[in-house]
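INFO batch 0412 | record 1 of 1 | parsing
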Amino acid sequence: MGMTISELYPNIKPKEDGLVYLEVINTPEFRLTGLLWKDKNKNYHRMDDEFMDEYNKGIKRRTVHTAGVQATLRTNTQKIGIHMILDDPEYMNHMTDNAVGGADIYLGNGTEKRYWHVIWNDRNGDFTQVEYCDGNMNDFTVNFPLYSGVKSFEIGLCPNAEIESPTPFAVEKPVIFYGSSITQGGCASHPGNNYINILSRLLNINTVDIGFSGSCLGEQMIAKLIAQHDAAAFVIDYDYNAAGADHLKETHEAFFKTYRADHPYTPVIIMTKPDYDDNPADGEARKTVIYKTYENAINSGDKNVYFIDGSKIFGDHLRDCCTVDRNHPTDLGFTRMADAVYPILKQCLSL
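INFO prediction complete | emitting tokens
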């Protein structure tokens, strides 16, 4: 049996709704993932704050966005509350407010998680939502906003609720994804339907989202920062952010080689963009460059690099239902992206 909330935190008094609210980043009983530098930064930023002045404009703004961040807790609480104070939400006309600045909760253990509740974002920037639970001991996985930061993210539990360690991941090392606005989660209907969060559920894995809308350009500095961390696998998915094939020629293989120099045996999955329909000729030119990175690695003896042809991800059946704007995936599009990555990642991780 775990200790109760009132035993662990006797000095934090319940609020009017009867719940004790705990700041996630300061609560060791909550497993907080998706933040490679959280111990150094002491906040919810996705990149290392030390180099904030050196990031490009887009990364500098969107490092506060909490795409891919998850808090998991195991408890028998009869009520759960979420209190968020948002930081610079990036509202858009083609993405729901709940995906931008809301959250969602999945209930269940390991690969058996199921969608339980959305945490509604009413655009006032400071909001609380309470939901009733069955009081059984369960894992609760909370997905943070995709296109907003959080100045504060608190989870409220009943004072008499017990809390235990959540079900372990199948693989504890993180799988790191580097890429575009699509990688960041645009335009899922709610945070849990970004393809990275889908893969986290399907495989019960620890994932990190280094996706920044319009801003992942294959920069050497970012490759070196990512390479500081020991990953279970690394997914390179920044095709769409490159200005074109010439930009990819200048950056793609160099980015891969910089990472590979520090991690010679880590599985690396290289993807091309799934949105080919607007300009197939441009897509093919980009794919040729990216495939060359993969081909050169294979020819040099690399046995742990994999290639996914993004043009085939959405398929033909209901292809037009896979994006909101012929670029950014819908929930169906993200599901098909997860389906494309799933078997390769499962193989890489020996699951």
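INFO post-check: The chain has a mean pLDDT of 97.
INFO record closed
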